[in-house]
């Protein structure tokens, strides 16, 4: 089975490929020649995940049949950090939370943007006792079939809390400040093997695999 994952993020691709069962070939947007920017205009994780998946599906429909016929489906994910004390923020704006600050300028690299987002999380929770939160990933799968495409959505959630400072250099995004429930280390400190078992994305992928096996 060949599935297109609607991303070129190397960290996400590595995580997806590590979790997927044998026989499922995951290819990136770059692999199919998709170069356009996808505008995430949704106000929920479900909407943004659907927007990304449908945009790529429409692109694949216009590829030569010799190429498109080899693709079984397209899936896209959207992930949000939902902090209890902040009424679920940043949620759908997780990746660009820092940029919502008045006067904030876009970082030069993803790493700089991630660092700015983590710093914002620590500032927002300074002095607060409740640091509980959750990461939630929504995956939209579109089967590449005619005349009607079949669409399904699944999600994965991991509860935890925001640390009082950054720990570890592993992972990406908010990993160095997120301590998953049942552990005393952040995702930035835990091994990839452990994270790939308990993460929100891993849990969403587990649900996706169930759909693929039906």
Description:
Strands 1, 2, 3, 4, 5, 6 and 7 form a seven-stranded mixed β-sheet that branches. It contains six helices and seven strands. The model has no long low-confidence stretch (mean pLDDT 91). The protein is an alpha/beta fold and 214 residues long. Helix content is 31%, strand content 22%. It has a single domain (2-212), classed as Maf protein (Alpha-Beta Complex). α5 (192-198) crosses α6 (200-212).
Q: Could you give a quick summary of the protein structure above?
A:
This protein has 214 residues and is an alpha/beta fold. The protein has helices spanning 10-19, 45-61, 65-68, 110-124, 192-198, 200-212, and strands spanning 2-5, 25-27, 73-83, 90-91, 132-143, 151-162, 178-180.
Identify the notable features of this structure and list them briefly.
214 residues, alpha/beta, Maf protein, seven-stranded mixed beta sheet, 7 strands, globular
Largest sheet: 7 strands, mixed
Number of strands: 7
Indicate the CATH architecture: Alpha-Beta Complex
Query: Which H/E pattern describes the elements?
Result: EHEHHEEHEEEHH
Indicate the mean pLDDT. Answer: 91
Total individual domains: 1
N-end to C-end Cα span? 13 Å
């Amino acid at each position: 089975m060949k599935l297109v994952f609607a991303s070129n993020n190397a960290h996400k691709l590595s995580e997806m490929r590590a979790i997927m069962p044998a026989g499922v070939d995951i290819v990136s947007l770059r692999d199919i020649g998709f170069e356009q920017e996808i505008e995430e205009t949704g106000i929920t994780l479900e909407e943004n995940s659907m927007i990304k998946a449908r945009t790529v599906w429409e692109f694949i429909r216009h590829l030569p049949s010799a190429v498109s016929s080899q693709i079984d489906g397209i899936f896209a994910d959207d992930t949000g950090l939902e902090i209890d004390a902040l009424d679920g923020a940043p949620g759908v704006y997780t990746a660009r939370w820092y940029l919502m600050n008045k006067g904030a300028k876009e970082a030069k690299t993803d790493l700089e943007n991630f660092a700015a987002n983590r710093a914002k999380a620590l500032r927002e929770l300074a002095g607060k006792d409740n640091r509980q939160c959750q990461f939630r990933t929504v995956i939209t799968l579109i089967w590449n079939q005619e005349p009607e495409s079949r669409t399904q959505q699944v999600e994965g959630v991991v509860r935890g809390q925001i640390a009082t400072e950054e720990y570890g250099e592993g992972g990406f995004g908010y990993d160095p400040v997120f301590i998953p429930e049942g552990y005393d280390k952040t995702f930035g400190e835990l091994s990839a093997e452990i994270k790939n078992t308990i993460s929100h994305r891993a849990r969403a992928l587990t649900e996706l695999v169930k759909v693929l096996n039906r």
